[in-house]
Description:
Rossmann fold; single chain; Arc Repressor Mutant, subunit A; 8 helices; 245 residues; alpha/beta
Amino acid sequence: MARAPSPPPSPSPSASPSASRSQPPAPAPARPRAEATSAATRIVIVAPDALQLADAPDEATQREAERSRSLRIGLLEAGCHIVAVLPADPFLPERLQQLQPDLIIVDAESQARDTLEHVVMATRDERRPIVLFTDDSDTRHVGDAIAAGVTAYVVAGLAPERVKPVLDVALARFRHEETLRRELAEARSALAERKVVDRAKGLLMQRHQIGEAEAYARLRKAAMDKGLKMAEVAQRIVDAAELLL
């Protein structure tokens, strides 16, 4: 008697088209953090009142006002958010504290140095990138301005399409410098902590006639028991020893 043909094997779940369609798609790669200007970049312009006049009284001020208009056009074309245009007056620190801009543009006339001094003083306690646009051809103070915290110093005319690249470079440079500044501060702090720990160990070794390893172990145990950093316990030991001198 002939045997009935066996039914074809059913496809496995991995070979099923419906099963393959039901699998979740691979996650998209994370986007890198933006380092350039965008609509979210909050910008404050610091400029003399004369540059905001529609009809300038003389040719020099007209030229400066034209540069100021080109700067604003470039910012608008780049999609930047200009939150305010402020004068360089004694109220500038308080206004910047209220507005919290990401970047400060100094749109200065011939008295660029005086305007810069106001802005640098206003950002002394809370650093921000500062970009100067000026027609002042006297560049003797460029080094002092950069040392004081100015991120970019742009002299003479500037086409609107060049504004965004200048700001992008200034922001990238500021972030790089802030990273280096933070790393230097952390290295100095770690060195200072190590010095105070070494001094406290020396005091413990001298007072209790113990070795360095034992002194370190006591410091570590005291820090763990009190929930403090070793440097904090060490500083207390040093302070107490100085009071007894």
